[in-house]
């Protein structure tokens, strides 16, 4: 593994597990070290939404921790990480993070990011949102998390679902200052002659 601090990727059971899987693939291609935690619900959703096996996803990361292992390296602020992206982030996980309820490694590691002032990006997946969801997002944001629901942009005229996934992942990577060329960046509207 590179001497560079790893990025922690967490995949929860919300719909959209492809965001987490593709994030790992992209980071691997970029030569960025990654550590992974998957919730039990994420493994179930992976089987429902994708053709990938859990072992295939785990193989994309440099290190993998069970979600129940609250004694893992990433559970401590003394373990250096570049930050954490939760992709996708279920409302259950959002609630745990917003309320500092560290009963799983994902919520504990997220709490570590907040207390150590490291980047924490939550790709929250739910719709429609009720006031409780919005209050949880506001609480997490007040603690320092970046709330980044994967909402597609269409200015670059995506041609596939993967184009839309890459646009969301690119936004998350931008929050951590990780250079990529996943989708064209907005250059301003075309000038009229």
Automatic annotation (TrEMBL):
Catalytic activity: dimethylallyl phosphate + FMNH2 = prenylated FMNH2 + phosphate
One GO molecular-function entry: flavin prenyltransferase activity
Residues reported to bind dimethylallyl phosphate: 155, 171
Residues the record lists as binding FMN: 13-15, 39, 90-93, 125
Annotated family: Belongs to the UbiX/PAD1 family.
Top-level taxon of origin: Bacteria
Function text: Flavin prenyltransferase that catalyzes the synthesis of the prenylated FMN cofactor (prenyl-FMN) for 4-hydroxy-3-polyprenylbenzoic acid decarboxylase UbiD. The prenyltransferase is metal-independent and links a dimethylallyl moiety from dimethylallyl monophosphate (DMAP) to the flavin N5 and C6 atoms of FMN.
Pfam name, any one: Flavoprotein
Alphabetical UniProt keywords: Flavoprotein, FMN, Lyase, Prenyltransferase, Transferase
Identification of the protein by name: Flavin prenyltransferase UbiX
HAMAP family attached to this UniProt entry: ubiX_pad
Lineage of producing organism: Bacteria, Pseudomonadati, Pseudomonadota, Betaproteobacteria, Nitrosomonadales
Species the sequence originates in: Sterolibacterium denitrificans
EC annotation from Swiss-Prot or TrEMBL: 2.5.1.129
């Amino acid at each position: 593994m590179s001497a560079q601090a790893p990025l922690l990727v967490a995949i929860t059971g919300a719909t959209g597990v492809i965001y987490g899987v593709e994030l790992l693939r992209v980071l691997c291609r970029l030569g960025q070290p990654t550590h992974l935690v998957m919730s039990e619900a994420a493994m179930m959703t992976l089987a429902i939404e994708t053709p990938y096996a859990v072992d295939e996803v785990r193989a994309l990361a440099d290190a993998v921790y069970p979600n129940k292992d609250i004694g893992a390296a990433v559970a401590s602020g003394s373990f250096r990480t570049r930050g954490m992206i939760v992709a996708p982030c279920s409302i259950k996980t959002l609630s745990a993070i917003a309320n500092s309820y560290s009963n799983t490694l994902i919520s504990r590691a997220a709490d570590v990011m907040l207390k150590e002032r490291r980047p924490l990006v939550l790709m929250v997946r739910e719709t429609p949102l009720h006031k409780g969801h919005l209050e949880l997002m506001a609480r997490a944001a007040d603690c320092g998390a970046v709330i980044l629901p994967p909402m597609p942009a269409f200015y670059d005229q995506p041609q596939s679902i993967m184009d839309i996934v890459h646009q969301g992942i690119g936004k998350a990577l931008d929050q951590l200052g990780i250079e990529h060329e996943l989708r064209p960046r907005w250059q301003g509207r075309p000038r009229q002659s």
